[in-house]
Design goal:
mainly alpha
Length: 103
């Protein structure tokens, strides 16, 4: 890299904006303002949610069906994992070497 290219790289940060150091009171004031904004937003959101129709919770039958699906998936995954584990380890311990007796 030439000296000119190097100096161009160094000059990149010369025009960068610098953040001023904040005092403790300025930080506390900023946090208090953020909290008041959050409180105002949550109040406006709660009034708009009252008009929405709430979704009914799932029935017991739907929950049982979902649990059965999950149970089958877990069992399938466990079986597949066990087969894969056995396959991986059978290759290293039970591998028979073939010999060529044609010579």
């Amino acid at each position: 890299m030439s000296k000119e290219e190097f100096e161009n790289w160094l000059d990149i940060d010369n025009n960068a904006e610098v953040v001023a150091t904040m005092t403790v009171s300025e930080i506390c004031e900023a946090v208090a303002n953020d909290k008041s904004k959050l409180a105002e937003e949550s109040e406006s959101n709660s009034t708009s949610k009252e008009g929405e129709i709430l979704e009914a919770p799932p029935t017991n039958a739907q929950m049982r069906e979902a649990l059965q699906i999950l149970r089958r998936d877990v069992q399938h995954t466990a079986t597949y994992f066990q087969r894969h584990y056995e396959y991986e380890h059978s290759g290293t311990t039970n591998c028979k070497q073939t010999t060529d007796n044609t010579t």
